[in-house]
Amino acid sequence: MRLSPPKVSVVVPAYNVETWIAAAINSVIKQSLVDWELIVVDDGSTDRTAEIVRAIDEPRLVLESQENRGPTAARNRGFARARGQYVALLDADDEYDPYFLQRTTELLDTHPSIGVVATNQYLVRRDGKCEIAFRDAAIRWLDDSATFVDYCRTRLTERCFPSNTAIVLRAKLISALGGYDPVVMGGEELELMLRWNKATRIGYIAEPLATHYDRPGSFIKDLDRSMKARILLWRRVLQQEPSYLTALPGYSKLRNMCLFRIAAVAIAAGYHGEAEEIASLWPTSPRDRFWWAGKTLLALPQPAWRLIHALIGRTDAVRLRNDPGSKYG
Q1: Distances (CA, A) of 50 to 28, 81, 223, 293
Q2: What is this structure's pTM?
Q3: CA nearest to 189, candidates 173, 210, 169, 172
Q4: Backbone φ and ψ of 97, nearest 5°
Q5: 156: which DSSP letter?
Q6: 165 C-beta neighbours (distance < 10 Å), count
Q7: Looking at residues 74-89, what average pLDDT do you find?
Q8: Helix (H) or strand (E) holding 323
């Protein structure tokens, strides 16, 4: 093991990703910045994931193993093991562009007020189609240089910004602000970014510097687990709501939009108990259109919910069947 700490620690949570883990690791090995360590946390895999990692001859690669406790616990395990000035995240079935670590750490080096850097990324869909994930115009209007972003306002136009594959954090702030909430598994990056954005600025690089693959079997594609995870997420977020309302001007609109989407999917997919739970959680916010739309939808009688479910609840858009494959896509 090297004695001096690296500039950046890359943390990869891994569970049953034998098909993709080597490509993810190789994308780190090919980085233009060479001062890194790579920590793969095997979260109780039952396939050859750990065996494949051990077979890779790379002195900067470290394998940590734990019982299956989920991706948030695996990432936090990696945080605890990391020795770098910065901590970069990579999902085990995604890949970095060769300049990802160089570009993100340069931005952190030159902007001390930034605690988090996110980048644009390529999204490869299941049919093989590749597209740029985040629309340039939707983010650039927040700041002329697009160096800094307002997380809440950006999430109003970009549903999944940033993703766990394209984030770099200042290590010293992980101790001060906390890592991922270990209870939340599904949308965990939203909870972390809200909490961090109260105390630090978020930097953004518009160039796609990572590739996210829409793999079958992703945790968030499993609708049953996803629905429960989203409700738990918002229970946790709402506990901190007074501080978000004060520090983040766009928070209430983001909250209403997210809860409206969850409620709409719950009704369309036939999760009526979960829809009622969302209604009981939702704070009053009568000045927002998402609140009015959601409350109107949730106020419909049960027969109307069943009709909506019958009409659209069996489409792929809300069914999202769970297929074999990565659970951390």
Answers
A1: 17, 17, 28, 47
A2: 0.89
A3: 169
A4: -70, 150
A5: T
A6: 27
A7: 97
A8: none
